[in-house]
Amino acid sequence: MYLLENPTKSYAWGSRTLIAELLGTAASEQPQAELWIGAHPTSPSELVDSRHDLHSLVESDPAGVLGPHVRAAFGDRLPYLLKVLAVDRPLSLQVHPDQHQATVGFDADRRAPATDRVFKDPNHKAELAYAVTPFEALCGFRPVAAARETFAWLARRMPGMREFGQLAHLLDGPDDRVALRAACRHIAGLSTDDVAAMIDCLPSAATNSPDPSLHTAADFAQSYPSDAAVLLAILMRHVSLAPGEALGVEPGTPHTYLRGGIVELTTCSDNTIRAGLTDKPTDVEQFLEVLTYRPLASATLASRRVGVAERSYTTGHPEFELSVLRLDPGLTVRWEPKPRAVLVLDGKISVTDSTGTSELGRGESVFVPADTGPVVVAGDGLAVQAMTGV
């Protein structure tokens, strides 16, 4: 078992306090957006009291660290990445590729200058977000009829803005996928002047509408007054999570996280394709190619009770599964051998394997290789565990 020291990422949308409070440190001078726990080669977790990191540990002994089942399924790599995200401002409007898109894109990007590369690795990216505070997002396309009605309402309210009516017309076809593709392509092809004029209408229009997606787009207007991604937001589903609820994000699903704190578990990939709402590089054409054009019936995930103290969440991708432990004194949980990362969110937790016991407090984490045998967890607190589904 290895105690971990985990890297943080500083992005403009992050929080100065949320990750600091989790780690028990003073508020940071710069926004801390992400805490990474895993073996991604660009930012692996460090092994405390060792000169090695988790990526090099896996490379040096994949059979022992991963175990035969995980290694047979995913090769010589840890297939998941556990994160804490602290969202004070909206992220970019983004999408992640499926496996075929990632493989082809990464191979093509290797021939391009490093600064022009969109694909960072050859792996698909799926996500699971578990809310630790109230959390809001736009995730996936909402029912086409709802988006069509909003654009039609904007056209009636702003008769001089003919593009609103055109978008309502494009969304009126019998095939939702064809309609969504046409609407997204139309928005991406608008002139900068048309986009700016349409966005300028949104704040006043939103005051007379109960539509949460329109309100979110109106909120974007001041910061991004000529960004077509603001209009794409009207096509998307607004999602609110209470602490303890979870959200699944499949490859091809457009999304942006708006505010709140989450534990995020993903496949071990950093492939993100952005359409806007950011100062980072965007690739709108690639974004439109990767999108899955279908309305999202529901983004929230049901949990599965594993025992008295544990609930499990999964999106069905075998690379990762998240379990949440709420332990009271006297309760113990036993896990069979598997590569596991454990992060304490509150209280104190003890983790025991064949190498000994680690006593963990808030913000502390360990990695347990497969070859250290069964694991016993006890204590009084709240923790999350990342593992594979195989």
TrEMBL record:
Enzyme Commission number: 5.3.1.8
Family membership: Belongs to the mannose-6-phosphate isomerase type 1 family.
Cross-referenced Gene3D superfamilies: Jelly Rolls (2.60.120.10), Phosphomannose Isomerase, domain 2 (1.10.441.10)
InterPro entries assigned: Man6P_Isoase-1, Mannose-6-P_Isomerase, PMI_typeI_cat, RmlC-like_jellyroll, RmlC_Cupin_sf
UniProt keywords, alphabetically: Isomerase, Metal-binding, Zinc
Gene name linked to the record: manA
SUPFAM superfamilies assigned: RmlC-like cupins
Protein name per the record: mannose-6-phosphate isomerase
Cofactors named for this entry: Zn(2+)
Pfam families: PMI_typeI_cat (PF20511)
Any GO MF annotation of the entry: mannose-6-phosphate isomerase activity
Organism: Solicola gregarius
Cofactor: record remark: Binds 1 zinc ion per subunit.
GO biological process: carbohydrate metabolic process; GDP-mannose biosynthetic process
All copies of domain Phosphomannose isomerase type I catalytic, residue ranges: 3-144
Keyword match Thylakoid: no
Active site: 274
Top-level taxonomy: Bacteria, Bacillati, Actinomycetota, Actinomycetes, Propionibacteriales
UniProt binding sites for Zn(2+): 94, 96, 127, 255
Enzyme class of the recorded protein, top EC level: isomerase
UniProt-listed NCBIfam families: manA
